[in-house]
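TODO from last week: model Type I restriction modification DNA specificity domain protein.
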Amino acid sequence: MDALTTPSNWQKVRLGTYKYRRGSFPQPYGNPQWYSDNGMPFVQVYDVGENFKLTQKTKQKISKIAQPMSVFVPKNSVIITLQGTIGRVALTQYDCYCDRTILIFNNNTLNDVNKYFFVLSLFTKFEEEKRKADGSIIKTITKQTLKDFEILLPPLNEQIAIANILSGLDRYLYSLDALILKKESVKKALSFELLSQRKRLKGFNQAWQKVRLGTYKYRRDSFPQPYGNPQWYSDNGMPFVQVYDVGENFKLTQKTKQKISKIAQPMSVFVPKNSVIITLQGTIGRVALTQYDCYCDRTILIFDNNTLNDVNKYFFVLSLFTKFEEEKRKADGSIIKTITKQTLKDFEILLPPLNEQIAIANILSGLDHEIISLKNKKRQFENIKKALNHDLMSTKIRVLNK
């Protein structure tokens, strides 16, 4: 506990003190009769979400025929994941059934604790175990190990006081999440209406032109082989953009996963800030307007800035994104599996006059800035919650008189 003395009225309690059981599910997993769209929520590891809650909807629903062979878990129960990603905790917000990868605490044995505080204690304990583990990952956990885990519990009134503070921050984070989702939905709908001409901005009525992507110069280049050669990379090098570095809101991630060394740079492609790029392998159709100088992998297509003088680059990015989304809707499984040079050349996008491009770009980029600002605020408050959680659970900060 960070070398702090445990207060005399905080008790160490073994998890074996409480009754719990694992969920269950009939075998084999793939049998379609175990599932039903009209069934009850069926919780597996990936359904245990952030902020100690289940996801809004579970990936699967369990059929009536399978329910007697699983474990019913009432709303407001404490659960924790024991396989896959071990140590994800939730206080369930709806009735559900649970898979065998989930441990369920018996509600009748938690009468002397505040459940939200108990969830915090479990989370804190598993985070502590992760720090001890190789690679910060708990690979497996036995029934006996779990029984012997100890958590610290203060008197009930202090549990409630701590829980109220941290759950208040949680509620604020939920409200930010809801606002972000609302703004993203507004942007998506408005983007569709403006780019499809279903909605025209006041004062603009000129015709839009269909333009082939082959009209513009672009290139894709390479990277020295083999990829794994350590001399091609350097912590002091330049950002090296690969598919997973093309992030949300038409931007690169803040930091690329790899940096390219000086020795490798002449064998790659330099891409100046404010360039339009698009991914052509892996996840095809992710678009960005680069916000820093970088080098690009051969999985990335780079548009020549000199050929984009007659377009607003942000609008051009929106048009590319819209075109690739359209192609995804046509594709089997909504995934573009491959794309040839000729197919790309023949893709057509719609371009209005430059002044209308700028007007549309200003509206949608304004929404982008609002979304980015909200996400930054969310990250800030997540960090505040994390620090406060640590200080309260380690007794560095006390909320009640000693």
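Done. The two ends are 18 Å apart (CA to CA).
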